[in-house]
Amino acid sequence: MNRAINILGRKLRLGVIGGGVDSFIGTVHRGAALLHEQFEVTASVLSSNPERSLNDGKTLGIPRPYATAEDLFAGEKDHPEKIDLLAIMTPNNSHYELSLQALDCGMDIFCEKPLTMTLEESEDLAAKLAQTDRIYCVAYAYTGYAMVRQARAMVEAGDLGELRSVQCDYIQGHLAELGDNEADNWHMKPEVAGESLILGDIGTHCFHLASYITGENPQDLCADVTSIVPGRTAHDYCGVLLRYANGARGSFTVTQAIAGGIHGLKIRVSGSKGTVEWDQESPDELIHRTLNSPERRLVRGGKGLHEAAHRATHVAMGHPEGYKEAFANLYLDIADHMLARHQGQKPEPLALWYPDIQDGVDGMKFIKAALTSSQQQSAWQALG
After folding, report:
1. Cβ count within 10 A of residue 247
2. Where are any strands of DSSP class E within 22-150?
3. In the chain, at which end, N or C, are there fewer CB atoms within 10 A of the end residue's CB?
C-alpha cells in the first residue's frame, strides 16, 4: 500500500530548485524521489536562465515550471496544491537565503551540502528552523546505504565495543590535471562555493559519515588543507587528524586530485571488540572483524543484519543497490516523517536516521576548524 496516498489521498508534492536537465545531481534527486512512489515533482526552477528554466521544466513534464526562485515562492506560498518539500540543488552561496524563503512559505526542505557558506549562517538557519515544525534534511547521501546503517546499528548495539579508531579516505581523480576552464567553474570560486572546495565538496562527507556511524563527533582536530596540483588556487587536498573525548583517534585523507582515482570513499571504524570496514564502490558489503573470530562478510539483504539495514533494503540480495537508491532512502525517511507529523504521531525511530540540520551545522564547524588549523600551521583546533 502507498502510505502517502493512503494517508493524504495523494502523493507528496516535491519542488526542486537547481539540478537542471544536464545536471548530474538533479537527475539523481528527481529519480530518487520517485523511486518509492511517495513523491511527485510538481514545481521546478531548473536554471538561472529564466527562459531555459521554463523550457526545461516543460521538457521534463513538470506541471508548474517557474522562471526564477522568486517566482516559485510567490506562486507556491498560497497555492491550493502547494509543494510539501523543496529540494535545493543550487550553488552553495544560495542555500541560506533559499532555505529562509522556503521556511517562510511553510515548506519542508532537502538541501545539498554544505548547508551554508559560513558557520554563522548555518547556526542562524538552525535557530529559525527550531521556531517551526518543519523538517530539514541535508544531503549526506552515503548515510542512505543499507550497510552504512548496519555499521551504525552495530556500533549502537555495542558489537564493536568502545571506540578506538576511525579512518576515512575519499580519493577522487577528476581534478588530477589543471583544467582549461577552472576559472569558469563555480565550484572553484570561493565567493560561490565557500572558502574550501575540498572541505565543502567531499571533506564534509567524511566527517559526517564518521560521526554518523560512531555516534560521536571529534573533540578537536588538526588539518593540512591545500592544493597539490601546480597552478590551482582552489583546495584539492586535505589531511585531517582527529581526537575524541574518550581518547580515540581518527584520520581523514581527502582529495580530488589523484591520478587514476575513481571515487575512493572508504571508512574503517574500530572499537575494543572489533572493526567494520565499508567501501562505497562495493556498497552491498560490510566487513566485520573481531579479536578472536574469523572475518565476516555481511551482505545487504542477507541474514544476521539489524533492522536498520533491512529498512534500507528494497531488492533481494545479489541485485545491487547504489547511489540513487541511497538518496531514495533519505527521501523515504523524510516522507515517513512528514506523514507521521500529518497524523499527529511520532515517526518510527529509524525514519529519523536521515541527516538533519544539526548535521549540517556540525559540517560547517568541521570546515571552519579545519581551515583555521591549516592557516595556523596545522595547530589543533576545538570543534566547539
Report:
1. 10
2. 39-45, 64-65, 85-89, 108-111, 136-138
3. N
Q: Using one digit for the tens of pLDDT, what is the confidence trace for 45-81?
A: 999 999 999 999 999 999 999 999 999 999 999 999 9
Report the C-alpha gap between 88 and 32 in whole angstroms.
14
Domains, the chain, with CATH or none: 3-142+330-361 (3.40.50.720), 145-307+369-382 (3.30.360.10)
Give the Cα separation of 68 and 70 in Å (integer).
Answer: 5
- pLDDT recorded at residue 1: 77
DSSP 72: H
Contact by Cβ (8 Å): 141, 312:
no
Q: Which residues pair with 107 in a beta bridge?
A: none
CA distances from 225 to 173, 174, 210, 220, 255 (A): 17, 18, 19, 16, 10
Q: Are 310 and 303 contacting, i.e. CB atoms less than 8 angstroms apart?
A: no
Contact between 88 and 99 under an 8 Å Cβ cutoff? The reply is yes
With residue 4 as reference, give the H or E element that holds it. Answer: helix 3-8
Burial level of 341, CB count in 10 A (0-12/13-18/19+)? middle
| Torsion-angle region of 281 (φ positive above 0: left; ψ -120 to 50: alpha; else: beta) | alpha
How do residues 192-208 score in pLDDT, each as one tens digit?
A: 999 999 999 999 999 99
**CA nearest 235: which of 183, 184, 192, 198?**
198
Tell how strand 64-65 and strand 265-271 pair up.
unpaired
